[in-house]
Structures are given as structure tokens and as C-alpha cells.
């Protein structure tokens, strides 16, 4: 789905204000079947930089265009749309299948599991297309797995940019809640059942 609003997208929600780039836990992003280990991290960048030319990009192994990309977030997010900028000459991905909050998915899992949503992609070399999610299904997303089964006929699949638009919650996934238990309660701090007429008091 392309952006067809009657305004300058640089100044409205189509732009970086809604980008979830800063909420991606980049150090933990990974991909299966990437030709260069770790190259998947290069496709996540600020919205304004999505079309900057760079030698770095994600590419599948030669003769096998399938890719699986795992993206964790530093806080739970709500995803409104996804943008994919692929490579030229038939190497752009032609289909996207998405799974949320499922870790450790491999190609066998991806092929047998029901995706949360699927899209038939267009070749988006200019970065003007966004694919809207079924928003109600993309709430409280801690991680997302992107399955690209095939390209537009190329021997490999190339991806130059992956972007997410949406909102982040205040829940930080790396915060560990500490629960303090009262081991030796002080009787003077609690009303007894007798004092409250047989009921239980709120402490």
C-alpha cells in the first residue's frame, strides 16, 4: 500500500515521528540464509536514511532467495505499517509473511506455521510504499519475525531497508521487576481481624 495522503510526508506521520527504529534491539537482530553474517543489521536505519546508497545490504545465499529475519524490540510496540526497500534486477522480495512474539523460528517452522499476516510485495526501489498491518493483531509486539519466501525471479533476495511505523509502550523488556516480600511483619503495622470486627483490613 502506498502513501497517498494529501500532504508532505516529510512533515507528517509518514515520516520519522512514527518510526520504531530507535526501539529495535539492533544487537540481537539476526537472519537465516544471509550470505554475509551480520549484514542484516545494516538494513535497519533512520527513516530519512532509507534510500542512502551503501554497499552494505542484506542478501540471501546465491541460488536460494529465501530469508528469515528476527527483530526484537527494547520495549513492547504497536506496529501500524512495514516498509521494505529491495534490490534491483528481480532481487527484491516478492512476498512477506510475519510472525510476532515467537523466538527461534527456522524455515521449517515458518513454512508450517500460520502467519499473523501476509503481503504480496511490489518492487519498492524508491521507498514510497508502506504495507499496513491489521493493527489489532500487532499490539504488544516484543519481537517480530519476517519471512521472505522468494524474490521477483532473481537468484538471490536483496533488502536495502526494513522499517516499522507505530508506537512504543512504556514497558521496557530489559527491566526486571523486583518483588519485596515482608518476611517478618510488624504486628503494630497490621490491624487484627478482631479489631476490624471480623473482617480483613487492607494493609
TrEMBL record:
Domain (PITH) ranges: 9-184
Species name: Arabis alpina
Gene Ontology cellular-component annotations: cytoplasm
Entry's family note: Belongs to the PITHD1 family.
Protein name: PITH domain-containing protein
PROSITE patterns: PITH (PS51532)
Domain of life: Eukaryota
